[in-house]
Design brief:
By secondary structure, the protein is an all-alpha fold. The protein has six helices and no strands. It has two domains: about 70 residues, 434 Repressor (Amino-terminal Domain) (Orthogonal Bundle), CATH 1.10.260; about 35 residues. This is XRE family transcriptional regulator.
């Protein structure tokens, strides 16, 4: 479970950081941590302490619940799939309502093709 949680948080952090258009060093500076610490979290090498996760959440403007899975993990999903889903979710959240509606229509069209 610890490995899965590390992988999940890594994907979420990377996706939300990129959506915020920050590099690892910029995020690290905002939360008073090292870029190496951010890199280790994003690579799933370390699990952040709660205070670090709270600081990341605040710096990225993302509710802390986004760093915890809703219903456990799907063991059939690859790390790449988890990363892609987290990145898609972060990108969708960054869109205006109208653009999100268009993006959803495009995703539905792809899914039915």
């Amino acid at each position: 479970m610890d490995k899965d949680l590390k992988r999940f948080i890594a994907g979420q952090l990377r996706a939300y950081r990129r959506a915020a258009r920050l590099n690892q060093a910029e995020l690290a500076e905002r939360i008073d941590r090292t870029s190496e610490a951010i890199s280790n979290i994003e690579r799933g090498k370390s699990l952040p302490a709660l205070d670090t996760l709270m600081a990341i959440s605040e710096a990225l403007g993302v509710p802390i619940r986004e760093f915890f899975p809703d219903q456990g993990f799907d063991d059939d999903k690859s790390p790449n799939r988890l990363r892609l889903e987290a990145e898609a979710q972060a990108t969708l959240r960054s869109l205006s309502d109208e653009r999100a509606k268009i993006a959803l229509a495009q995703l539905k069209a792809l899914a039915s093709a």
